[in-house]
Each structure stands twice: as C-alpha cells, then as structure tokens.
Amino acid sequence: MNRLDTMYQTILAELGQRVFDASFVSDFPADGRFVSVTVKDRKYWYFDQPDGQGGQTRRYVGPADDAAITERVTQFKALKNDFTSRRKLVRTLIREGGLPRPENRAGDIIEVLANAGFFRLRGVLIGTVAYQCYSGLLGVRLPSASMVTGDADLAQDFAISNEVQDSLPPILDLLRSVDETFQPIPPHGSGSPRSSAFRTQDAYRVEFLTGNRGSDDYLDKPAEMPALGGASADPLRFLDFLIYEPVRTVLLHQAGVSVLVPDPARYAIHKLIVATRRIKTADSFLKQQKDLDQATALIEAMAQVRRFNDMREALQEAWARGPAWREAITEALSMIPNETANRLVKVIDENDGG
After folding, report:
1. Which of 107, 231, 338, 351 is the most exposed place for a label (fewest CB within 10 A)?
2. Where is the Nucleotidyltransferase-like domain positioned along the sequence (predicted)?
3. Do both 130 and 162 map to the same domain?
C-alpha cells in the first residue's frame, strides 16, 4: 500500500482541527456558558443556555478529561467558522491526495447527524463509511474495493445514552431532511414502538446499534436509547469492544465533518470476529469477504506505519475475553492471507506464553 505524502497528512490534521473548532461554534451560541459537572467521580462539560423564558437549558458536551474538548471550551470565544477555506482543503485531499470520500448521500446523512449533535453525544460512526476515514487517519491509501456500501451504520453506548441527559432532535426528521422517502423499519417481533433502522425508497439503509454484554434474551430486542431522538438501537455482541475509546477524525464531505470512529485496530479485530458469524448465504458471503478484506488491509497498514503495537493490544484484549472470542478469531485466521494471519498468530503465541 502506498503511503500518503506528509504534506497531505499535515493538511488533514489541520482540517480535522478546524472542522472540530467549527462544530463548537455552531453547537454552542455565545450567550451560553460551559459548566463542569461531576458524575460518578468523573467530570463532564455541559453547556447552559438561556431558554428565553427566564430559565435555562443544559446540554451535554463531553468528558472533561478529553483534552481536545477542554481546549475548545477554554478557547470558545476565539473560534471562527471558515467554511469556504475548509472546502478547499477537502477538495485538495480528494483530488490531489487521492483520499476517499463518502457517497454524497452518506456524507449528507452523517453531516446532518453531526450538526444535530450525534458525535457530541458520543455516538460513533461504524461500518464501511468509517473505514473510508482510515486512509487519512493512518496515512496509507487503503484498497478502494472495500469501500463500497449501500448503508450507514452508527452506534452509541447504552450507558452513555442513558446518562447524558440530552437528546438529538427526532431522528426521522433529520433523515428526511436528506431524503424525504426515509421510513422506519418496524422491529421484528420485539413489541418495541421504536425503530432502530430506517430505509429509503431505493433501499438505502441507516441503522443504529449498541453493545450487548448481557443475556442473549436482549438480542433482537431494540434497546431504548434516550439520546437518539426517538430511535432505538439493536444490541449486538462484540460491539462494546468496537466502540470503546473511539478516535476523532474528519469525513471528507463538503467542508469536512468531524466524526468519531472506532480505533482502527479494534475495527480490524472486530471485523475478523464478525466475518465468522455471518449466516451462510450468497449475500452474506460478499459481506464476509469485505469484512476480511477490510481487516487484512488495516492489519497490514498498521504494520506498515509502525503502529502494530496498537493491533497487539487490541488483539490481546479480545483474546482475553473468553472462549467464544478466541474461537472466532482462530477461525478468522484461516480465512485471511497467511502473511497477515502469521502476524496475529505471533501475538497470540506471545500472549499464551508459547
């Protein structure tokens, strides 16, 4: 895989900072103020704003130990929006740097959700649209064949959704601002009045997910998510591993969209596991192959840019989670190229003292 020129990595870093700055300007008007609140021995930033009726509204901002957020809280009044300049940087990265961009509709959807506060509420972009961000994040041009998708997957931790005491506007309204044909997909047999998935007339799908580390009784039963504007989320095994400590980057759409995506090492290991659990159908075979291709590309890219220690730590954590995890990883190793599999086998042998 070709390395990204240092100049473009520098431009991307600058763009990411400026996009995040701009999101602060749009999210938090000048007539409000930031306050620090301690919840369960951890400090969080909230934003208080007059409600026009003598009271105030409070919105969740993020953890105070997130240095990037705290820095912008401190510099809030000095931040300026520079939309036109950022669009030029995005075009440079796409046209000259050769970095991938999302399909326009996917980009519009993610931008609408970002502007509404999805990532401020610690939502995470997952799936192939997130994978498209890793070329810039790692400084390597990843294979483009694994970047095609017809859906957008997003996730939020269940505990965060219940604790932030804030919510997006109605999800369906947000989605219909992009495509008026969006309709909720009724949950199958769960009895829940809320949908976790939405689909357009031409079958473009947006789905919300959350982790499930509890009983299998929760599977196929959408979880109530107070922060998701009326949407629920499908609880999935292994997802908590994927979205733990996400990283901030920029989606190359319009003037750039500040997003949270899974750590690339966690994404790769998660894709290996998911690939082994797909039901055997013609359609799932294609998805399985894409899972494996994405995982392989990320493992090799992280080795190439000398970030394999991150991969080692993610694999060791997954391996330590129990027999089901080890069985899935072992099976996946037989499905990827030998050279890539051997990189992970060495880590497993070290972990087991072999």
Report:
1. 338
2. 105-319
3. yes
